[in-house]
Amino acid sequence: MKFDKSLIATLREDPKEAETKNHRLLLRGGFIRQVASGIHTYLPLGWRILLRISNIIREEMDRIDGQELLMPAISPKELWEESGRWQEYGEDMFRLKDRKDREYCLCPTHEEIVADTARHKIRSYRDLPQIWYQIQTKFRDEPRPRSGVLRSRQFIMKDSYSLDCDQAGLDKSFNLHKQAYEKIFKRCGLDFVIVDASSGLMGTGESKEFMALVAGGEDELVICQQCDYRANIQVAEGKGLSASFADIPLEQIATPEKRTVREVTEFLNVPAQNLVKSLFFTAVKKDPILILIRGDYEVNEDKVARLIGHGYEPASAEEIKSVFGAEPGYIGPAGMGKLKIYADDLLLDAQGMITGGNRDGYHVRGLNLGRDVRVTEYADLRKVRSGDRCLKCGGKMTIESALELGHIFKLGTKYSISLGANFLDEKGISKPIIMGSYGIGLERIMACACEQKSDDRGAVWPISIAPFDIHLTILNPNEDIVKNTSADVIRLLTKAGFSVIIDDRDVSAGIKFNDADLIGIPIRVTVGPKGIKNNQLDIHIRETGETHSATQSELVAKCIEMRELLYRRING
RNA sequence: CGGGGCGUGGCGCAGUGGUUUAGCGCGCAUGGUUCGGGACCAUGAGGUCGUGGGUUCAAAUCCCACCGCCCCGACCA
After folding, report:
1. Which of A177, A169, A165 lies closest to A132, judged by CA?
2. What residues form DSSP beta bridges with A422?
3. What's the confidence (pLDDT) of residue A204?
4. Can you give the pLDDT at residue A369?
5. Do A352 and A412 share a domain, yes or no?
6. What is residue A284's DSSP assignment?
7. What is the pLDDT of residues A71-109, one digit of tens each?
8. In chain A, which residues from 75 to 134 place their CB closer than 7 Å to nucleic acid strand B?
9. Which of A19, A130, A164, A249 could bond A169 through an S-S bridge, CB–CB 3.0 to 4.6 Å?
10. Does residue A7 lie in a domain region?
11. For residues A214-242, b (16+ Cβ closer than 10 Å) or e, as one string?
12. What is the mean pLDDT of chain A?
């Protein structure tokens, strides 16, 4: 492909809407173009990357006997009503009507369509297991699209679905996917970890996330420095450090204008673990609840949701005032026996604690949870902190920022039951199909490669997903000798099977080199009058910055060698 | 949805009531000199100043409403 005839528009300056590294690079290099918030055109360079990623995914999915199909991007309301998700999905779902006023959605995911297909096509245990997958556009009206292509409203996902007779079959399909995913991300040249994850509203089964460690990721991971425990902070558990204080009688203490943990600890000169934070949550049509957490920890709302159900939100100041008779910052559990009170298990047997006095400007000292509070249930409700100890090995755990690349989970029968996707087993008994669901965000792989592999000059694409193998830079393209040599070089490289982008624009060398660095093709070959005089062509490796020279007759062999070297660095 | 910021040629920005033709850099077009890490000269094209309303003799500039985009938070199968 010729550079000057292609739809490549590199930008010399950073577009102002881009703040994260991947977003800046993808825009500046002319890989993507934003059309609306969270909606992009994938320009030729970006699309070639996505195609290469798709191919890797296809190869690995086919290897585990996945069958590629394509489901519609649009589907009728009725299917979603059967599963209950027409309601559940709420505003995140794009909805539309046809001319006859029939309602549809733009699919945010495809479990319903899969279950619908299965109920029509799967009859017997003899038809199972199945793995169906597609690479397709998804639509989610995210409340806040961000970071370019990382969280967008229209994006490409490889989603697959396993159908099995029983739990053992599901386990097998799940493990096949886990292995396939490891290969996929490795082949794409990414650094990633596999962590325990929350399955959210999708189901209650086991769930793993494939996470890329990148600065400024949307997720936080808890990683044990000693053993292999890795978990999303949403589900991570750790051994908290216990703290004990002298058991003294309950007494009120004046703490004027001291509301936050920090203010109170500084004012009273006590450590944060001497405090009990009281968090009041309300929900529509449910009893309000009080959560107690030690002062040095934060509440993990995912854990709360799993314990008491979804829908709870922090209460408003007015609600707090009316129930506790005090402003936020001064509320506490003492004397609130009529409320349901859930306490973090680090507070079990806690005594001598300080907490809100349910009176403006006052806290109480000497709180003994067993004596003064009627706790409904103790449970792990805290967010793991850096430095907490691992439950498995006691090692120190740290918290890292990460980006979700893929998510696999065991769905079970949620959709097969609600949509009636059943099969007859060996005994002729009708049973619901056991499903699994597995996703990979294609753009996220592209963006993540930018985050992990680029440098201050531009992108550095892993050879496996680069839009081209070779960037051919032709200097002084109007000189006859250069014209002739470059024509020969193009013929040689193309014949050898390389994909080549040819930059023979009549602009200065610096512009071409800078554009090449920005676009990030792994191998750059330079043809110019100086080199030709010495019978030399330059081969420059984008990743390492090393430059080799080769004669025209050595060129292809040298490029093949470099390409293999780059592949080996990825695949080991 | 809460908080903050921004909308001016393709891109990045300046201009915050009054030199009647709205600037600058980059890019773009034409001609010429250059040519191994973002060259130079000359000429030129390109703008409903986000949209609508209002104030005023006069609005890119002041007021109101709306729209769009970005960031933080909430939310996120």
Report:
1. A177
2. A432
3. 63
4. 93
5. no
6. T
7. 999 999 999 999 999 988 888 999 999 999 999 999 999
8. 92, 108-109
9. A164
10. no
11. beebebbbbbbeeeebbbbbbbbbbebee
12. 93
